[in-house]
Amino acid sequence: MKVLYDTILKAKYTGRPNRFVVTLDLNGESVLAHLPNPGRMWELLFTGVTMYIVPHDKPDAKTKYRVVGIERDGVVIMLDTNYSNDVAQHLIENKLIPGWEEWRVVRREYTVKLHGTSSRFDLLLTNDKGDEFLLEVKSCTLFSKTGAMFPDAITERGRKHLLHLKELQNEGYHTGVLFLVQWDRAQWFLPDYHTDLEFAKTFKEVASSLDWKAVAVAWDDTFTMPTVTRECSYPSSILDTEAHDSGVYVMVMHLDHDLDLEIGSKGMMHFKAGYYMYVGSAKANLTKRIERHKRKRKKMHWHLDYFRGHCEMIAGLPIRTSLDDAECALADAVRGVAEWDVPKFGSSDCDCKSHLFGMTDNPIHNQSFINVIENYRMNMLDELVNS
Question: Closest Cα to residue 318, out of 207, 189, 198?
């Protein structure tokens, strides 16, 4: 079996200055490492988790090391997207992908011209009959207890790519996508309609036209080529009920100073410096509601409108769901991980103590908070998948 790296070191994650660099504790020394995966990976990057790094192979590199993997719940996860095509080729050539045993790789980064436009694909496959198969390879690092989703950030480029694959299929090409789910516990796969609803809608539209698979792969700390644990199921019916522009959300904000502020008819309220999490809902136009909350200049309507102009917006986290009581249940879950709340803020029309909660540090990097988001976005789907 092929080992991908000669020297692998373990270090502890301490921070992420930008999308492509992380800070690490390597045997007591603070070092920088290049992160070849620019995804958000909020569900993985927590202070103190084990990361796997290798000495950088480029002498003029800005960092001494390069990240290749990380651990979640003791499971080794591959992060180095530079090897995705190598992994895909290994799995295909060793007939480890169910249903694709007839195919073999004949070329990498194959270019096709259609209607004057050139498109490059990760792999060109063929079989004994001489058929050709244009294949794209995607690495999936967004997963929950038993599920996996892609992507973890909005990708208009990825959505257009799906449409192009379908166009080529209509022109007589055999096209598809291989999602390498870097989590051996994954049992099902869906497009991430919470994060990128338009990508999910497009995926739902073209999925039946493409030859695509999502396979869960298992790694160990030697980073020898992985094995396939299983082909993930595709519970497409969930998209029919859940993938709509409605549901609940959490707005994450930062207030850098103590503040006394008049909140509409509620009067003067006190806010101490820190990070805030506001829970709300929208029965329609969830995307526009979140975008409105992000703007500072607007007509004052909700309690949050008065507070928003005095703080920095960190993130808006949509959770698209058909559950009727999701807002108050989510508020209760967030309250369970917060350090304080602002009494009766945003909860005038319900029995909740509050819908605005605070903590000292950024909740995006707080595992308990991210677990709440993961539970509502993915873990709660397990029951629907198994029903």
Answer: 198
